[in-house]
Specification:
The complex is a heterodimer of chains A (579) and B (239).
Chain A (H helix, E strand, L loop, with lengths): L2 H11 L4 E3 L2 E3 L2 H4 L2 H4 L9 H11 L3 E9 L5 E8 L4 E8 L18 E7 L4 H10 L12 E9 L1 H12 L6 H7 L1 E9 L9 H4 L10 H26 L8 H6 L1 E6 L4 H6 L1 H19 L8 H17 L5 H26 L4 H8 L4 H13 L2 H4 L20 H11 L1 H4 L11 E6 L5 E5 L14 H12 L8 H7 L4 H10 L18 H12 L2 E5 L5 E5 L25 H7 L1
Helix pairs in contact in A: 4-9, 6-9, 13-14, 13-16, 14-15, 14-16
Chain B lengths: L1 E3 L1 H13 L8 H13 L4 H11 L9 E5 L3 E10 L4 H11 L5 E10 L5 H9 L3 E7 L5 E7 L7 E6 L15 E6 L13 E3 L1 H14 L1 E3 L1 H11 L3 E2 L6
Classes of the chains: A alpha+beta (579), B alpha+beta (239).
């Protein structure tokens, strides 16, 4: 796939490594290409991974504080999380609902499970408040004691199969689990002040959850533990003495599902410095590792991981034919990459050479390789987890003149300047917010209503317009003078100047273009979270799993759990042993 | 009353401003100007709701410089809100401080001057000291901010306004004066003012807003939310 584009990348690779802040990084044109972002996978730097390392190193403890779950699976469960600094509680409400109400979109109003991560103790009053508000989600109000508010739906098939099998004293059919990979899937996990809960600002001084999205990831991790305890408990309630617990390997194999739609895409456009920070840190890691000699690496670990990645991709079940094709091709490509590792090592080459070689293959396999390689250098990677937060401000230094701005535009935004916006296909979509729970959506310009309320996510078009105007201005004038007369460009000027001086800068994507794939944006963010098992359900929403393959709370460790694969239960005796 | 978070307030205000579809003004900056003022207890939301009356498509024009020297500049905003223009005006003025130690800015015929708070606080982070004063349009008071470079929050001094018209009513003015300096300003004696809101007091209020949420009147919140709905598109509409 994309052979012609790969050649372009190959030719640009010769000058793609440049010295920036002491670390050589690839050209932003390579890294911020939306197709590459749309091929990213979990790495050691992903948030689920840094969270679990912190939980291990700081010896966090998790206990069930309250369990009032009926034999039908409804009721309240509370988990107490103890860190060296503070106690937290995850309060979970399991609600009865009709199958027809179970929808994953943000417009849903009922969910199987609603939950909140709360700082401190839960007294009767607080529990009552939570009971009255958490199940309502967006329609409720919560206090700043709540740091995460979320909901999840069951995979009814997996849930029922697990409970009935375990109750009957049998381990489940692994094929059923492999199809899905989770018991519960979240449909929204809110943090940072949503619906009255605590702002992230407060958590920045909290040594437990000062890293972006760590509180949200923690809530999801505890939910995963709940989902496992839940099916084990229900099986016991149903089967009594006959019931068995779910095999530990299968418990590890099950994560938490997540359904993500277009709503996530505007985040990546509206928070460009965060995205730059994530990708720049990741590139610094890759830059440092690429300068290491291959022969010094633990090649057994790398080969194991690559083989596991191949198995993982073979096991991923997706209805999306394009993704199936990508996975199939990646499995083949990875074999070729594995063969080249011997050459890289024997010739005493640096990983940079292998990464260059890999560019002949599809982006999916290139990204898999990088994820596996990063895993081999924990001492290089782990310090970067502390620098994933970003200052979001956009500003222009005093005295900046138009000539300087044009230099930035020409050196960093050629991808936007060269787009011909007089062509309909380059401004085909418009983005808007629907009246249905303010869900972000895409409309076809000139066909669908709402263009008059278009969201300003058109960074490429704004940059293009700014450039066309600036080239007609005297280049010695200052930007401040220009903006006083033309204040409509103030936002894009601040953005271009700031991002143009960041290592990776803006995502190089015209989100208005007919061929633009929002899926690429979703996958970029989800992989930074640490999602696995990408299963696009259309070009606008995707199902993934979080914490699939992760250690359970009672066996938590700081080591890798990349690319989850189904435990091998081919022998009957193994199943019986666990029974 | 209702407790809202900073992020919620910024999001709703930003949508409310975007819903106006004005040619100028950056929604994210403006939302933060509102939130910055509200967080310290100086009624950012009420001022923004008032501002909504002054923000409309018909009277928004680039600002008009009526006088300019190296150290002083007069700008006429034609009774517009400062919201759409202040960030670019301050950018322009602070450039002048590269050549001069002090610059005075007189913004004539402008509205919603309390909302300048957040943008002025940003300047002090860049090493600029600020002295700001204006007479309130609705109340007979005169307000002075002093914010020396490096300080995060200003000292605010308020006095009853003495200037009265022949009929005894106070003379309402819509002028905002901002002095910027590379040096620090000396603080006046608080005893000379009827009210002094110290930076320490503002900080305490701000910290409380972060920790416990921002307490605002439900009716104001509802108005703000209603304004924020203007950006929404009804489902399933085809032209």
């Amino acid at each position: 796939m994309h052979r012609e584009n790969e050649q372009e990348m190959m030719s640009s690779m010769s000058d793609s490594y440049e010295h920036q802040s002491g670390v050589s990084m690839r050209d932003p044109a390579i890294v911020m290409d939306p197709r590459r972002l749309g091929a990213m996978h979990q790495t050691r730097l992903s948030f689920v991974r840094s969270l679990l390392r912190r939980m291990y190193h700081k010896e966090w403890q998790l206990n069930v504080a309250q369990w009032e779950i009926s034999s039908q699976g409804f009721g309240v469960a509370i988990y107490k999380l103890t860190t060296p600094n503070q106690d937290y509680h995850l309060v979970i409400f399991s609600n009865e609902m009709n199958d027809e109400d179970r929808i994953d979109r943000v417009i849903a109003e009922k969910w199987d499970i609603t939950f909140a991560l709360v700082i401190g103790e839960i007294d009767e009053n607080l529990l009552k408040q939570l009971q009255n508000n958490v199940p309502l989600q967006e329609a409720g109000r919560n206090s700043t004691q709540v740091i995460v508010l979320a909901r999840a739906n069951k995979s009814v098939r997996v849930f029922e199969h697990l409970v009935s099998s375990l109750a009957a004293g049998k381990q489940p059919d692994t094929a059923v689990l492999a199809q899905v990979g989770y018991i519960l899937r979240t449909t929204a996990v809110y943090g940072n002040g949503k619906f009255g809960i605590a702002d992230f600002e407060i958590l920045q001084n909290n040594p437990d959850f000062d890293l972006s999205f760590s509180a949200q990831m923690c809530a999801v991790y505890i939910l995963r533990q709940f989902s496992l305890d839940w099916v084990n408990d229900l099986a016991k309630q149903l089967g009594g003495e006959q019931a068995v617990e779910l095999d530990i390997g299968l418990q590890r194999y099950l994560g938490v599902g997540n359904a993500t739609g277009l709503g996530m895409a505007p985040y990546l456009i509206n928070h460009p410095r965060i995205v730059d920070q994530w990708l720049s840190q990741r590139e610094k890691v890759i830059g440092l590792i690429s300068q290491k000699e291959a022969q010094e690496a633990d090649s057994r670990l790398l080969l194991n991981l690559l083989q596991r990645a191949r198995t993982h991709l073979e096991q991923v079940v997706t209805i999306d034919e394009y993704q199936q094709q990508l996975n199939y091709q990646a499995v083949l490509d990875l074999s070729e990459m594995i063969k080249f590792i011997d050459y890289t090592k024997n010739q005493k080459l640096k990983w940079e050479r292998q990464i260059q070689y890999n560019q002949r293959f599809n982006l999916e396999s290139q990204e898999v390789f990088l994820a596996c390689l990063i895993e081999c250098y924990p001492e290089v990677v782990d310090p970067f987890e502390e620098s994933m937060n970003a200052d979001e401000s956009l500003s222009i230094p005093r005295g900046t003149c138009i000539r300087q701005m044009l230099e930035v535009l020409k050196s960093r935004y050629l991808w936007a300047i060269e787009i011909d916006f007089s062509q309909d296909e380059n401004k085909y979509w418009f983005w808007y917010r629907s009246e249905d729970k303010e869900e972000p959506r895409l409309g076809v310009r000139g066909i669908e209503a709402g263009e008059d309320k278009e969201l300003p996510l058109d960074v490429a078009r704004q940059v293009n317009q700014l450039y066309q105007v600036l080239i007609t201005e005297p280049d010695t004038s200052t930007l401040a003078e220009f903006l006083l007369a033309s204040p409509q460009y103030a936002g894009i000027v601040r953005r271009v100047w700031t991002l143009g001086h960041c290592h990776m800068g803006d995502i190089q994507m015209n989100v208005l273009a007919k061929q633009a794939l929002p899926m690429n944006l979703l996958r970029c963010k989800l992989s930074m979270f640490g999602a696995t098992k990408f299963d696009p359900r259309s070009d606008r929403w995707v199902r993934v799993t979080l914490f699939q393959g992760a250690p359970l709370m009672n066996e938590i460790h700081p080591n890798e759990w990349l690319f989850p694969i189904l435990p091998d239960f081919s022998s009957k005796s193994h199943v019986e042993k666990h029974a | 009353m209702i407790l809202v978070s900073h992020n919620e307030l910024v999001a709703v205000t930003s949508k409310a401003f975007s819903g106006l579809r004005l040619p100028y003004g950056e929604a994210d900056l403006i939302a933060n100007m509102v939130a910055d003022l509200e967080m310290v207890g100086l009624h950012g939301i009420k001022h923004f709701i008032t501002a909504l009356n002054y923000l409309n498509q018909t009277n928004v024009k680039p600002c008009n410089i009526t006088f300019e020297s190296d150290s002083e500049i007069n700008i006429d905003l034609n009774n517009e809100s400062i919201l759409c223009h202040l960030p670019t005006i301050l950018g322009y003025i602070s450039d002048k401080l590269l050549e001069n130690n002090n610059v005075k800015l007189n913004i004539e015929n402008c509205c919603n001057r309390w909302l300048a708070f957040g943008e002025l606080c940003k300047l002090s982070k860049d090493g600029i000291s600020i002295k700001t004063c204006w007479d309130d349009f609705f109340e007979p008071i005169t307000i002075k901010y002093l914010l020396n470079s490096g300080n995060k929050l200003p000292e605010i001094y308020i006095n009853n306004l003495m200037s009265r018209d022949n009929d005894g009513s106070f003379i309402a003015s819509r002028k905002l004066t901002i002095e910027l300096s590379n040096s620090t300003f000396s603080l006046p004696s608080a005893a000379d003012y009827q009210q002094h809101i110290s930076s320490a007091e503002l900080k305490r209020y701000q910290e409380d807003s972060w920790s416990n949420g921002i307490s605002i009147q439900l009716s104001d919140w509802e108005k703000l939310k209603e304004s924020s709905q203007a950006i929404l598109v009804p489902s399933g509409n085809v032209i």
